[in-house]
Amino acid sequence: MDDCSRGDFNYTASYCEENVHHLCSRLVERGVAQSLDSLHVTFISNALQQVPIWQQRAGHPSREGLVVWDYHVVLIQQQGPQTQAPSQQQQQQQQVNTGAAGPAAATPFTHPESEAREDLLSGGLPGLADSTSTSSSGVCGGGRGSRSHSGTQDPPICVHAVVWDLDTSLPFPCSLQQYAADALRRSSELTGARERLFRVVPARTFLDSFASDRSHMLRADGSWVAAPPAYPAIRPVQGSSCRPRQTMNLLQYFTMTAPPSPQHPALSHTHSPTEGGGHDVDGSLASGARFPH
Predict the structure, then answer these.
(1) Structure pTM?
(2) CB of 65 within 8 A of CB of 59?
(3) Whole-angstrom distance, CA of residue 278 vs CA of residue 86
(4) Is 115 in a helix, a strand, or coil?
């Protein structure tokens, strides 16, 4: 892999979704990623918008870099044997799913950590065998096979993946195994509405469809929670499946609803991001720094 440092890429604190948007294109331009088909934008959140992630540069070293984000976005790159690129029919279906209803419709269910944990910690992506999600096409699966919502096991489709997180203090990039173990970790406190959920979106879909006018970072008085990037706000690619005048669909990406099941009933979105998180997390997570994106 070509030597990379964080300084080689656009970065603005608290705008992880935009950082990842630019990172996708840059990795392909530099030849670090063979194509966009090997890259997968992963949103991490839950219904409460309280997700603990360790080894974050914004966190305090005494707490092992713990930050409780309202949501976080990382880029996962598949390495090793590649799955086949989506067929023309799959691409057309994906365009239908990402139409007026918004890009998040392409991933109708998010993947709860209780289902994903073993796959994630063994080096795979969470829940990607779910046939109900069009984001599963071309995505790296676990070394021992990914678990679908039906409980069946599918064969592994790659051997290695790395995580690109411009906010982490871990290596850049970091192996998925190390990121899962050191940044995500296991916690008995993360149950029910606090369980972390993962929405995995193909990079190509994300680049074509994502739009943000940054209004989620504005206070009621019009001041910024965090200073925005100097470059123009991101809009969908002209001619993409998004509505032509759409300027903001970020919330559709990080609004998380768990797949309904007896063990994990459906959760609905409850509130928008607020400055400082605005919520407490019980136990050892309570003293982690809280930041909105």
Answers:
(1) 0.72
(2) yes
(3) 41
(4) helix
**Edge-to-edge order in the sheet of strand 289-291:** 51-53, 67-69, 289-291
Tens-place pLDDT, residues 225-254: 999 999 999 998 865 555 656 899 999 999
pLDDT tens-digit series, residues 137-184: 223 333 333 333 333 333 344 448 999 999 999 999 999 999 999 999
DSSP secondary structure letters along 236-258: PPTTSSS-TT----HHHHH---P
Reported as a pLDDT band with limits 50, 70 and 90, residue 21 is very high
User: What are 206's two structure tokens?
Assistant: 């994300």
pLDDT at 228: 98
Return the SS3 of 163: strand
Mean pLDDT of the chain: 72
The distance between the two most distant Cα atoms of the chain, rounded to a whole number of Å, is: 53
Q: Which helix (H) or strand (E) holds 118?
A: helix 113-121
The verdict on whether omega for the bond into residue 173 sits within 30 degrees of 0, i.e. cis, is yes
Question: Any idea which residue has 């607020």 for tokens?
Answer: 274
Torsion of CA 276, 277, 282, 286, to 10 degrees: -30
Give the helix/strand (H/E) hosting 35.
none
Alpha-helix residue ranges (DSSP H) falling in the chain: 16-29, 88-97, 113-121, 176-179, 203-209, 250-254
Distance between CA atoms of residues 75 and 117, nearest Å: 18
Both tokens of residue 66? 């713990």
184 within 8 A of 120, measured Cβ to Cβ:
yes
